[in-house]
Design goal:
Elements lengths: L19 H20 L4 E5 L4 E4 L2 E2 L3 E5 L6 E6 L2 E6 L4 E5 L4 E4 L2 E4 L11 E8 L3 E8 L4 E8 L3
Antiparallel strand pairs: 1-4, 1-9, 2-3, 2-12, 4-5, 5-6, 6-7, 8-9, 10-11, 11-12
């Protein structure tokens, strides 16, 4: 999905005819619409996180994987069977992603951040902690009553 927006703003040279709120609003609209085409339609490449550990309700999970973008640990894409969760540790939010929006290319996944749902899942009990050689993220998915415990080694 690509949004094309062309905005023309005419500002009079006369100080009596322009107001600060109008100029600020016009600048905001220009910046907001200019950012949309660049972000839309450009999927991020998610690579498997090496040596990650995932437990759900303190139990090992049979079919799972963890992916990260550019070796960053603050946003992780967690695959549990056919389900995909975007875990944003910095914002302490979890989003459930539609599998149809994710494309598999070998071991990597392609996913466009513009496809992120507007509303995150209800979560609580967040713990994001550096535990030496890894980042540990614990969070409770309130609607399901499940606790995710994720450890991802720091990138070198």
């Amino acid at each position: 999905m690509q949004i094309m927006a062309h905005t023309t703003i005419s500002i009079s040279a006369s100080p009596q005819r322009r107001s600060l709120p109008a100029v600020a609003a016009a600048a905001f609209v220009m910046l907001a619409t200019a950012a949309l085409p660049a972000a839309a339609g450009k999927p991020s490449i998610w690579k498997p996180a090496q040596q990650a550990i995932l437990r759900v309700d303190d139990q090992a999970v049979k079919e799972w994987d963890v992916f990260q973008v550019e070796k960053k640990n603050d946003r992780l894409l967690v695959q549990l069977g056919g389900r995909f969760l975007l875990v944003d540790a910095a914002q302490q939010q979890v989003f459930e992603l539609l599998p149809a929006t994710i494309e598999r290319k070998g071991a990597e996944l392609l996913w466009d951040p513009a496809d992120r749902p507007a509303k995150p899942l209800a979560t609580s009990n967040w713990v994001v902690r550096d535990v030496g050689r890894a980042l540990r993220i614990r969070v409770r998915l309130d609607a399901e009553g499940r606790a995710l415990d994720l450890q991802v080694p720091h990138s070198s």
